[in-house]
Amino acid sequence: MAEPASDTLLSVEALEAGYGEVQVLWGLSLKARRGKLTAIVGANGAGKTTTLRAVAGTLSPWGGRVMLDGEDVTRVPSHVKAARGLALVPEGRYSPRSERSIDTRLDQVFKLFPRLAERRRQRAGTLSGGEQQMVAIARGLMSDPQILIIDELSLGLAPVVVYQLLATLKQLKEAGLTLLLVEQNVHLALAVSDYAYVVAEGRIFTEGLPAELTAKPEIRRAYLGL
């Protein structure tokens, strides 16, 4: 009998990384559970984007491990990680996972984003900011990922567009997709996530269920303005 799959799809263990001689991440660890939306929040310069780059493979970690579905992918190139089901938005490369079903995936993407179907002949650079974010998410979905990692969903977008995109993320999660959202807007991230990590100075400052984090005085003061 086959062993049941672990509840954890992505595991980051004691990750260390940086640029040149400057260390940014100091033993950072986190997990993303299957079929859940996990958020990484924190201020600018906290290490959120460096974490994504090290996980996705566009930045080589100095230490620690990145495990995807039980497999060590720490030193695996980014395009190979994409082929194994890890998609970072924006993700510009289609993987072998998607070659067999591009038409099907495209139909699904257009159902999620009808506006893109209407503008399918339009150059991406001429789309609105919200539509370009839809394109970025759609490109990630075309690789038929196990986990979709989204960096700063709300950046520069009007609230109404952000709410539309959040509704789409909820649809994807309900369909079984695992999501990792990196977001500076803590209010937004805690409103949609199942579990969240707060990063500060390259370390996990605290973690927990959204309701637990919202109730913590230090989080309320530093990030929620309460």
Describe the structure.
It is a single chain. With 226 residues, this protein is of the alpha/beta class. It contains 10 helices and 10 strands. The chain has helices spanning 48-56, 78-83, 96-99, 102-112, 114-118, 129-141, 159-174, 186-192, 210-215, 217-222; strands at 8-19, 22-33, 37-41, 63-68, 71-72, 86-89, 147-151, 178-183, 195-200, 203-208. Strands 6-7-8-3-9-10 form a 6-stranded mixed sheet, sandwiched between helices. Strands 2-1-4-5 form a 4-stranded antiparallel sheet, covered by helices on one side. A hairpin with a 2-residue loop joins strand 4 and strand 5. The chain is globular and about 45 Å long. 33% of the residues are buried. Residues 90-98 have low confidence and may be disordered.
What's the arrangement of secondary structure elements?
Layout: E1 8-19, E2 22-33, E3 37-41, H1 48-56, E4 63-68, E5 71-72, H2 78-83, E6 86-89, H3 96-99, H4 102-112, H5 114-118, H6 129-141, E7 147-151, H7 159-174, E8 178-183, H8 186-192, E9 195-200, E10 203-208, H9 210-215, H10 217-222
Parallel strand pairs: 3-8, 3-9, 6-7, 7-8
Antiparallel strand pairs: 1-2, 1-4, 4-5, 9-10
